[in-house]
Every structure is written in C-alpha cells, then in structure tokens.
Amino acid sequence: MKLRCIAVDDENLARKLLEENIQQVPFLELVKTCKNPFEAIEVLENEEIDLMFLDIQMPGMLGTKFLQTLREKPLVIFVTAYDHYAVESYDLEVVDYLMKPVSLDRFTKAAFKALDAFKKRSQETTSLTINPPAGTEDSPDYFFVNVEYSLVKINFDQITHIEGLKDYIKIFTTNTVHPILTKSTLKGIEEKLPPRKFLRVQKSFIVNLDKIESIRNHRISIGKYEIPVSDANMEALLEAINYTK
Length: 245
Hints:
With about 240 residues, this protein is an alpha/beta fold. It contains seven helices and 15 strands. Helix content is about 30%, strand content about 30%. The strands form four sheets. Strands 2-1-3-4-5 form a five-stranded parallel beta sheet. A five-stranded antiparallel beta sheet has the order 10-9-8-12-11. A three-stranded antiparallel beta sheet has the order 13-14-15, with no helix packed on it.
C-alpha cells in the first residue's frame, strides 16, 4: 500500500526537505510539490491524493484557511514553524502537527499515523456498504436523484458520464439534451453505480465504459464531450476496457 501525497510550502528549502523525507518512507509516493495552495488545488482536482503535507504561513492564503475551503479533503499533516496554530489544527482534524525543522524520525512517526488513519478510513468506507454492490443480481439498474424538488429516475445504461462540481454533480445521459444537475458528491454517486460498468477516471469525472468511443492523449471521447484521464487512473482504465498491447 502506498499513500499518494503532495507537499505544499512557499519556501524552496522546506519543499526540498519534505521531498527528501518523503522519499525515505517506503509507503509514501510523492506526486508533486507545490509553492502555494493554488498550485495544490490544481493537483487535488486532477489527481487522487491521499495525504497532504501542508505549511500554514504562506503568502496569499493560510494553510488552515485553505484546508477549510476543500470539500473533499485528503489526510493532512501540518508542517510549520509556528506553534500557535496547534489548537486550530485539532479542530480541523489533521493527522499530525510537525514543527520545523523536522527530524526524519519525527517525520516517519507522523507518516505512520497517516497510514493508520488511511487504513481506518478505508475500513469505515467498506463497513458502510451494507447492500450488495450496484449492478449485481439483487440491485436495481437505476437510481433516483433530487432535481428541483422532484425525484428523477436515471437508468445506468443511459448515463454517458458524470462530472463533479463543488457541491453538485452533473449527470450526462443519452436521453436528455442538457445534463441533470443535482446536489450530491461524486463519491456518493459513485457508490450507487455498478463498478464493472463505471470508472472514475479523474477526480471530477466518472465515465460509463460502454459509452467510450475513443481515447487519445489522456482524453476520452464520448459524443461531443472530451473527458480528461489522470495519470493515476490511466492504467485502471486500460485494464477496464480490456486493452492489450
């Protein structure tokens, strides 16, 4: 098991030290280092990130405020030179609070805490799956969503793809001109879909594998739409469509 992580710090030396420490821990995989929260947002939107090492005092936005803006949060370890944010960090439910300069021993202990938290989160997600997986014999081939105070039925085989927004999702179907907009999370809707037919190809997109027309340059073509595929999900996509070299 590997935790895909990013390091966010405005100081070059601090980012370099975080990168070196991450490389020393076998179960950590560094996806990218970021100079500010705005770079981090782009990575979080396009990659599956399990853990974020986050500085607090940064120009433009405090790390604490940045964390509060995120709807879907990875696990977070604060790495800072200031101790007066410690109380606030507990309210934000971060994994650990590291004071600069961070020794490799202390860093490793924090990483193991993150690994334990990740395993616990995964177990809790699994335990919530009480009903059979969507698309099995005992499951319906549709679900209902709330649209403007009405419940609208959506058949799985009519969905082409789904896009996640901040607090809403767009469901694109073959029988509607415009996408269906409903208040939900992409993760919540993903749990209702049959996993053999649908795949999350990027942080903000799920596609119906049966509707894929072509794949080129990490982009899926479905009708007039092009859906980006993250590097992390490309291998899973090729496997799901039974592609062989």
